[in-house]
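Example S7 (structure tokens).
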């Protein structure tokens, strides 16, 4: 299987290669075979991408929002028309099963392009009436050149969630995908230009952290949007602060999912499965600390074990497969280490957690019961298919323990008590909360974290605030007096 792109980078409206950059092999996670080799951006490539973005941005911002939006909406249509091919590429890049990628990745990217394309024409300032006939108005301006840096779990979606609002607001973007999944963002760039995006406005360059860092530090850059881990977020936020750059930080989590005795058992099990094993557990907002009230615990674990028998682990391209491999050998080793640590710390491994004896990065979905709050598997982000089940007695206790974490990305509650559901959602210290559901992320709703899980929001009209700034203009209608 091969998925070699035309070239490593996409700059100023065309593919660009520079073999002086270090090689980055791309592995198909289902087999471990090398399906492509791209090269890291050299300083010359980084400069070329930033110069192109800088040169193209002002003219793009001067176009009407409706014109900009039309291009984004055209790109959304092309993405939908090519959904199959893009989904196959997403599966090759990440290993996620086609059953998921065909309904989640290019489609979610297209939703973002369509949504922000639709908003572009209505981005305006305000008129503000002041005393004595005076007034002020605000102008909503683009920020300039935005840098997007992606994680490896949703490469198409991340490229679009950052690109669409940036472009709608009149910015240019230089996007650096994760070194683990460099392929999909190139297709996003290709499609945007095919839809009529002028050259230079959406550039993709490859590389590891050593390419991300100079992008963040460059004086031509006005905004940085990162999707990644908390340690990387700390570094990128600090580097951006030096140049007083705008930031959006979509970082990691260790989110709680509270299941009360009165919950609908089947739905609660579905929520726990979706919130732990979708994309083989490689989802930032996953509810990996599952607090189950003692009265329902045995029934919950029994039904969960039964339902996990339906996990179909196999060829990710087979539409029946619903559980794929981990993205890389490195990520698989991290997960295996946590499984060993959980057992050492005295948690009970109810099922799963075994590496499959075949090429690729395969592991069975794991459930730990009798987990306590202080165990590493309950405190640290694993980013793999490992569910920790913790017991609780009362609502107050569950909420306090749920919030006892440095993270604040997401949180969920399953209960049939209407008032309790909203009370608990109100009490959660998290940016994205779910009642009787888990991991929904439609483009119309703000998405993002609190505490160490990030700053800023993606999706929805809220994202516009993070890709534009307001200029206030004061207007005096009469003569102006001064003390002397
Ligand atoms: P990572 O932090 O290792 O890398 C993220 C990106 O940052 C990569 O593109 C990497 O090359 C780049 N990078 C690394 N060091 C850098 C530096 N010094 N300067 C600039 N860029 C640098 O994360 P990952 O392993 O790719 O992804 C997994 C993490 O992402 C998890 O913590 C997960 O929770 C998080 N994530 C968050 C969201 C969200 O929306 N909140 C979504 C997906 C993933």
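Recovered sequence:
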């Amino acid at each position: 299987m091969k998925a070699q792109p035309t070239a490593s980078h996409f700059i100023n409206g065309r593919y660009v290669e520079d073999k002086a950059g270090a090689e980055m092999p791309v592995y198909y996670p289902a087999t471990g075979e090398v399906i492509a080799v791209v090269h890291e951006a050299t300083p010359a490539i980084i400069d070329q991408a930033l110069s192109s973005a800088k040169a193209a941005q002002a003219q793009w911002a001067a176009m009407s929002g409706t014109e900009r939006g039309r291009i984004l909406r055209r790109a959304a249509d092309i993405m939908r028309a090519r959904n199959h091919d893009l989904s196959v590429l997403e599966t090759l890049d990440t290993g996620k099963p086609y059953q998921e990628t065909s309904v989640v990745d290019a489609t979610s990217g297209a939703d973002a392009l369509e949504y922000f394309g639709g908003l572009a024409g209505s981005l305006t300032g305000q008129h503000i009436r002041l005393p004595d006939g005076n007034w002020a108005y605000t102008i909503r301006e683009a920020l300039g050149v935005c840098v997007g840096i992606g994680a490896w779990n949703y490469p198409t979606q991340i490229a679009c969630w950052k690109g669409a609002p940036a472009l709608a607001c009149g910015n240019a973007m230089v996007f650096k995908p994760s070194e683990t999944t460099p392929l999909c963002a190139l297709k996003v760039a290709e499609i945007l230009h095919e839809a009529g995006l002028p050259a230079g406005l959406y550039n993709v360059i490859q590389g590891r952290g050593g390419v991300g860092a100079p992008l963040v530090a460059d004086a031509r850059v006005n905004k940085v949007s990162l999707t990644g881990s908390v340690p990387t977020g700390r570094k990128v936020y600090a580097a951006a602060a030096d140049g007083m750059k705008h930031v959006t930080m979509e970082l990691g989590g260790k989110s709680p999912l509270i299941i009360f005795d009165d919950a609908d058992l089947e739905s609660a099990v579905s929520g726990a499965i979706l919130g732990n094993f979708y994309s083989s557990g490689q989802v930032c907002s996953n509810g990996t600390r599952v607090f189950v009230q003692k009265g329902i615990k045995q029934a919950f674990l029994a039904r969960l074990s039964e339902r996990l028998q339906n996990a179909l682990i196999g060829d990710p391209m087979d539409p029946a497969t619903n559980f794929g491999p981990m993205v890389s050998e490195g990520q698989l080793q991290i997960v295996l280490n946590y499984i060993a640590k959980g057992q050492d710390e005295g948690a009970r491994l109810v099922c799963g957690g075994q590496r499959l004896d075949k090429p690729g990065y395969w592991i069975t979905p794991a459930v730990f019961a009798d987990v306590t709050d202080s165990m590493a598997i309950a405190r640290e982000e694993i980013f793999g298919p490992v569910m920790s089940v913790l017991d609780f007695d009362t609502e107050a206790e569950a909420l306090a323990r749920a919030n006892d974490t440095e993270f604040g990305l997401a949180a969920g509650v399953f209960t049939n008590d209407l008032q309790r559901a909203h009370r608990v959602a109100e009490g959660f210290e998290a940016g994205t909360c779910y009642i009787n559901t888990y991991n929904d992320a439609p483009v119309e709703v703000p998405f993002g974290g609190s505490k160490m899980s990030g700053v800023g929001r993606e999706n929805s009209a809220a994202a516009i605030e993070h890709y534009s700034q307001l200029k206030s203009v004061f207007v005096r209608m009469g003569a102006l007096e001064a003390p002397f």
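Notes on this example. The mean pLDDT is 98.
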